[in-house]
Each structure stands twice: as C-alpha cells, then as structure tokens.
C-alpha cells in the first residue's frame, strides 16, 4: 500500500466502500423480503390453527361417540374443502404416509401418495410436509407451485400442522410472488441509489485525489523519498515543483533551500570560528609568555627597589648622625659665647684664655671640616637616590597603567633627593663660611697676645662672631633636621614603592594564569569548531 499512488489508494478505498454499500443493499433487500413474508406467515398460521380447531371439534364428536371416525373424518374433510380465502388459496390434508386426504384446489390427486414427488424446480415439498409434521409438529414450507390454469410456477409459502390421533397434516398456502415483485422493485431502487452514490463518490474521489496531489505537489512516495534523502544529509533541491506554489512540495523545497543556506553559513562560521580560536590561542600564549617575562622584570625591579630602600635607610642613619653632630656644634658655639663673655672679666689672663680660645677654635675648625665631609657624603647619597628614583620612574613607565602609582612615588622620591642635595649644598657653603671665619678667629686670637690692650674690643668682636656662628649652626641643625625628615619620608616612599612593585608582580602572575586559561579555552573552542565543521560536512547542498 505504501508504494501505491494517491489515486490508486483512493480507488481502493472507494471500491471497499462501494462493496459495503452493495452488501448493505443486499442485506436490506433480504430483510425487506423477510418483513414482507411476516404478514403472510401470520395469516396462514392463523388459518391452519382455525382448521385444526375445526378438526378438533370433530375429534371431540368422535370421542363422545356421536360420530364414528369415518363419519367424523368425512365431515371434517368437507368442512375444510369449501372455505376459500382467496382465488388460489385453500386448505389441504395429507396423512403421515404422504397420501392426499383432501386437496380443495386439486381433488384429482386425493388418494394418491405424493411422497418422492417434487415441484417444477425439483423440491420435494410433500416430503417436507411429512417431515415437518412428524418433527416439530408444525412449520413453514416454501416451494414453487403453478397457479390454477397457469403453466409457470410461482413462489408459494405453506404452513402445515399435525393432527394428533388421526395422523393428519392440515395446511394451507399462499403465493408470495407479490413479495418477490416488491423485492425486485426495491432492488431496482437500491441499485439506482447505489449507482448514484457510486457516481458521486467516484467524482468526489477523483476531485479529492486531484486536490490532494495538487496540495502535496506530487505523489506521497516522492515526498517520502525526498524527506528520507534530506534526513540522510542530502539537502539538494534538484526536483521539479509543478502547479501550486503553496503545495507541500514547494514549501519543502523552500525549506531545504533555507536549510542548505543555513548549513553553508554554519560551515563558513565554524571555519571562521576555528581560525579565530587558533589566533586567540596563539595570542593568549604570546601574552602569557610576555606576562611571564614582565613578571621576571618586575621581580628584578622589586629587588632594585629593595636595594634603594636599604640605601635610603643608610642615608637616614647618616642624617641622624649629622643632626647629632650639629647639636654638639651648636652647644660648643653656645659655650664659646659664654667664654667670651667671661673674657671681659678675665682680661688679666688674656694670654692663657686666648691660647685656650685658639685651641678651641682650632678644634671647631676641625669639626667644621668633619661636618663638611658628612655633608659631602649626604650629597653623594642624595645624587644616588635621585638616580635610583629616575630608574624607578623609567621602569614604572615601562609597566604602563599598572606602574602609574609607582611612577608618582618615584617622582616624589626624586624631588626629596633634589631637596636633600640642595640643602646639602647650602650646608656646605655655610660650613665653608664657618671655616673661613674660624680661620680668621684663629689669626685674631694669635694676634691677641701682642695686642692685649685691644683684648676687650676683640673679645666683644669675637663674642659677636660666635653668636653668628651659633645662629649659623642652629640654622644648619634645622636644615639637617629637614634632611632627616625628608630621608624618613623617602624611606616610607621606597617601602610603598616596594609594596606596589610586589602587587604588580602578583597582578602579572594572575594575568599570566588567566591568559594560560584563555589559551586552553581557545583550544577547546577550536576543537568544538572542528567538531561542528565535521557535522556540517555530512550535509550535501
């Protein structure tokens, strides 16, 4: 059935429907015939029952002794001979041996044994009468028998019943050709109706088949073949579409064209995806390698910053020592002033006092030279700090956005180093001035011995000079304190720079790990793209 076209399938379905209609018509005809026979059956059965009642009355007279059996049977025969309920319908009596006892319609056969004889169609109706009477005792018998004066037989229905005691079979019959005529008439009617139905169904079937084929756009077998081919990956649209462009076949072709375009697009996209994934994987690997290199550079920079921090701590220690020396110098200057004030009252021992002052001023010159050496060291440290800050700024610039905070800190360190160098230069200038003045004081004190007379004036002048020295030393002390404070700030800044560099190193390590994971995901994406490309390649478009 699956290989048949739509027209053949509809023809088979209509044929089965037509056969059903014919069978239903035949069944209806037989039911109609049976319904028509019911009236005749009831009528002849009632007549036979009446006849049996008449015979029963004569049997009663015999039993009462009023009549002999022969008389009773004779009177019973005559009683049933005369009644006629239609032209061709009458009563008949046979005995169990098949002998005709009384036949109102054909008295000539009375006395004859009818067993073994048949009607015009070969049916042994008298044998049927006897077997019915002996068997169930009563029943219907249908046979063919000619009407009076006719040569052709007509269908007839008889009802026979046994008469117990006399072994008679009383019956009557009725022609049922009217039922056959009615049956033929209905058969013609049913035939015409059936033909009309068949014709209408045929036309409707043809139109339906044509409509179905037009709606489908072709035979279902062709559609199934195309769909199986598409299920196997062949999306070719090389089949023709005839007629309706809204048919299933036309829509199927449009769908396959759309699927073909989609498959081509997916194939191209998967190929591009594979290429992009490969590029991303390579780029991620390169970035990861660069991140590892940057991590190494950052580690080296962290080590450099650590060294710079150590150097700055040394500078801070030196600045603290210089501050202590300056405090001692200020104290000495203050003591010199006190001595010069006492010199006015001690003019008698001017020579001894002048000698002591000369010695002390000489010691002060030596200390001034020591302070100059310390300031030179501080200046060298400030220059090295400035150089380290410049290198740190260069490394921060290389680090890009990540090293911007580090660059700011490095710039502040450089400014502090410049301020330290500037302050150191000023301190050096002041110390040189102090050395010159100390040298002058030594000369003055050397001349004070022969010039004792002028001791008071020179002492006052020396006191004034010492006051200026004390003020200069105090100023130097303030500058050195500023240097120490700046050095401490520089130490804190270098520590912050070290922490920032450590964070940069951690961020670079995290970036390297992230890029490695990105490379792995890119490789997985490339594998998925290759799988997708393999799945798409099985389609033929």
UniProtKB/TrEMBL annotation:
Gene3D superfamilies the record matches: Methyl-accepting chemotaxis protein (1.10.287.950), PAS domain (3.30.450.20)
Transmembrane helix in keyword set: yes
GO biological process, one term: signal transduction
Pfam family, one: sCache_2
Keyword presence, Nucleotide-binding: no
Keywords per UniProt: Cell membrane, Membrane, Transducer, Transmembrane, Transmembrane helix
Residues covered by the Methyl-accepting transducer domain: 269-505
Chief location: membrane
Membrane topology of the entry: Multi-pass membrane protein
Stored SUPFAM superfamilies: Methyl-accepting chemotaxis protein (MCP) signaling domain
Transmembrane segments: 12-30, 188-209
Entry-linked InterPro entries: Chemotax_Me-accpt_rcpt (IPR004090), MCPsignal_dom (IPR004089), sCache_2 (IPR033480)
Matches recorded under CDD domains: MCP_signal, PDC2_HK_sensor
GO molecular function: transmembrane signaling receptor activity
Any one cellular-component term (Gene Ontology): plasma membrane
Subcellular location(s) per record: Cell membrane
Domain of life: Bacteria
Family affiliation: Belongs to the methyl-accepting chemotaxis (MCP) protein family.
Annotated protein name in UniProt: Methyl-accepting chemotaxis sensory transducer with Cache sensor
Organism: Formivibrio citricus
């Amino acid at each position: 059935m699956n290989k048949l076209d739509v027209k053949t399938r509809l023809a088979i379905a209509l044929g089965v429907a037509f056969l059903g209609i014919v069978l239903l018509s035949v069944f209806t005809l037989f039911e109609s015939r049976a319904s028509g026979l019911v009236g005749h059956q009831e009528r002849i059965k009632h007549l036979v029952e009446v006849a049996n009642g008449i015979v029963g009355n004569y049997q009663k007279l015999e039993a009462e002794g009023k009549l002999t059996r022969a008389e009773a049977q004779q009177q019973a025969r005559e009683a049933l001979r005369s009644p006629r309920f239609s032209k061709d319908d009458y009563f008949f009596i046979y005995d169990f041996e098949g002998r005709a006892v009384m036949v109102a319609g054909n008295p000539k056969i009375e006395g004859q044994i009818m067993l073994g004889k048949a009607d015009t169609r070969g049916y042994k109706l008298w044998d049927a009468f006897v077997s019915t009477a002996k068997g169930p005792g009563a029943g219907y018998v249908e046979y063919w028998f000619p009407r009076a004066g006719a040569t052709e037989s007509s269908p007839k229905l008889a009802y026979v019943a046994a008469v117990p005691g006399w072994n008679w079979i009383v019956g009557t019959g009725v022609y049922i050709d009217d039922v056959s005529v009615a049956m033929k008439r209905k058969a013609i009617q049913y035939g015409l109706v059936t033909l009309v139905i068949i014709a209408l169904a045929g036309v409707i079937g043809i139109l339906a088949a044509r409509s179905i084929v037009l709606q489908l756009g072709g035979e279902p077998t062709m559609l199934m073949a195309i769909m199986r081919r598409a299920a196997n990956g062949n999306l070719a649209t090389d089949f023709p579409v005839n007629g309706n462009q809204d048919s299933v076949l036309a829509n199927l072709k449009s769908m396959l064209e759309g699927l073909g375009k989609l498959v081509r697009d997916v194939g191209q996209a998967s190929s591009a995806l594979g290429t992009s994934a490969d590029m991303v994987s390579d780029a991620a690997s390169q970035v990861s390698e660069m991140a590892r290199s940057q991590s190494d550079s950052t580690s080296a920079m962290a080590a450099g910053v650590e060294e710079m921090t150590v150097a700055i701590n040394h500078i801070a220690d030196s600045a603290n020592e210089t501050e202590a020396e300056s405090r001692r110098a200020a104290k000495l200057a203050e003591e010199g002033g006190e001595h010069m004030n006492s010199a006015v009252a001690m003019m008698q021992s001017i020579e001894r006092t002048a000698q002591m002052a000369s010695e002390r001023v000489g010691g002060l010159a030596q200390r001034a030279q020591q302070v100059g050496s310390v300031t030179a060291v501080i200046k060298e440290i400030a220059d090295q700090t400035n150089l380290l800050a410049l290198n740190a700024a260069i490394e921060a610039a290389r680090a890009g956005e990540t090293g911007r905070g580090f660059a700011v800190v490095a710039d502040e360190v450089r400014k502090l180093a410049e301020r330290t160098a500037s302050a150191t230069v000023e301190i050096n200038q002041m110390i040189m001035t102090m050395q010159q003045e100390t040298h002058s004081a030594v000369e003055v004190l050397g001349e004070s011995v022969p010039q004792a007379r002028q001791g008071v004036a020179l002492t006052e002048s020396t006191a004034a000079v010492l006051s200026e020295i004390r003020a200069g030393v105090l100023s130097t002390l303030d500058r050195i304190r500023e240097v120490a404070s700046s050095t401490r700030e520089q130490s804190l800044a270098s520590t912050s720079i070290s922490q920032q560099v450590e964070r940069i190193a951690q961020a670079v390590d995290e970036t390297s790990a992230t890029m490695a994971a990105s490379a792995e995901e890119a490789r997985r994406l490339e594998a998925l793209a290759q799988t997708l490309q393999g799945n798409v390649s099985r389609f033929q478009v």
